[in-house]
């Protein structure tokens, strides 16, 4: 097991709402599919996000959110008290007061540095929380692009903000560096649930979760980060996260950026990244 850090980054990179990304880091993101940036938000800025995180993760909007408030490790319909990996999709959609929060502002600056061939915008966001001592609160290993419609431009930068320290014990992100360069996506299958149709396509009415299998030569690395720090990964890298074996929560705020034309292409077919979307998955995923 290898742990990856980026000790060169830190609060000295911040200047107002800007955070400098080095040219070597931009190259790493494109070549290996991921990046770590330390101390992106200050403690004072983190404290502006904490109440919103608690608001959504405790289910205060769950009635209106429907499937957008779910357990990503279990089927839809799992009782709230049995949740292990709590997922709250699209918080800014459900509470407009959350729009233009501090991470949205700073991550936009970083996304602009990573993406220089078009215009990047927020495609979706979500809060994730792994309950304490829940070894099965796993985020199944996958590639993000396996979940999404086919679009002309697939470029994505997904930002994961550590709301508290993330490490191997509580289920930090792990991935396969360079797997983003594989010519084809790996085969994604439903995770354990009865949601595979007779023709082999995925029925998203039971569960949103897909999984791929690791290959014998895959080299897994773990990305532990401190509160206020970020991991960033692209749409093709193979990644996941383990369960929470600690006695504390593991908390994450995710924002994904894509090309503005890609976002328009998604919305034109009714795809918003909401689990409540009414789309023909067989047609758009294949």
Gist?
With 286 residues, this protein is α+β, with helices and mostly antiparallel strands.
Major pleated sheet = 7 strands, antiparallel
CATH superfamily: q2cbj1_9rhob like domain
Could you say what the CATH architecture is? Sandwich
The domain tally reads 1
- Gyration radius, in Å: 18 Å
Overall 3D form: globular
Which ranges are low-confidence, i.e. pLDDT below 50, for 5 or more consecutive residues? none
SS strand fraction? 15-25%
Distance between the termini: 35 Å
CATH class: Mainly Beta
Number of discrete helical segments? 7
Query: What helical percentage do the residues reach?
Result: 10-25%
SSE string, helices as H and strands as E: EEEHEHHEEHHEEEEEEEEEEHH
Helix-strand category: alpha+beta
Strand order of the largest sheet: 4-14-9-16-7-6-5
Number of strands: 16
Q: Would you tell me which CATH topology applies? A: Jelly Rolls
Mean pLDDT level: 92
Report on this structure.
The chain has 286 residues and is an alpha+beta fold. It has one domain (2-184, 215-274): Jelly Rolls (Sandwich). The chain is built from seven helices and 16 strands. The protein starts with a strand and ends with a helix.
Considering the chains and any ligands shown, give keywords for the structure.
286 residues, alpha+beta, Jelly Rolls, 7-stranded antiparallel beta sheet, 5-stranded mixed beta sheet, 7 helices, 21% helix, globular
